[in-house]
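Example 3.2
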Amino acid sequence: MDVGARVTDPLVREHARLESLLDRAVAALGEGDERERARAWGELESELLAHMDAEERLLLPLFHRVSPRGAAIVGQEHRHIRARLAEVGASIAAGRPDRALARAFAAELRAHARSEERLLYRWAEVDLGPAERESVLVAWPLPRHG
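Structure, written as tokens:
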């Protein structure tokens, strides 16, 4: 493990990958059949939840030491994202996908990602020591799907 590696590079790449899954899932609500909608949204949900779980397990406890308020804000945003993700998922499961809600969720998720990159990821890049960087990089989960 290269402990000099930028700890945020894989995290920013993962944000981009999640955004791509988000685009596909939202597009499937307008174009896909019922199975494709459920598959695309399910993949987004699985990957996004794993990503937030990893941030909460690996980064937020460290961030909390220097910025309890910042860590609380990220945690609050994650709870909101989980609730909105479930809300859109429920509309898909009911056979009435709420495209407007999905588009609003997409905008919120994109804004959260940019905020997280400016706040949490910038802090990680500047303040994590070599051992903490290695710990985060080694423990970060690989994507579940391609």
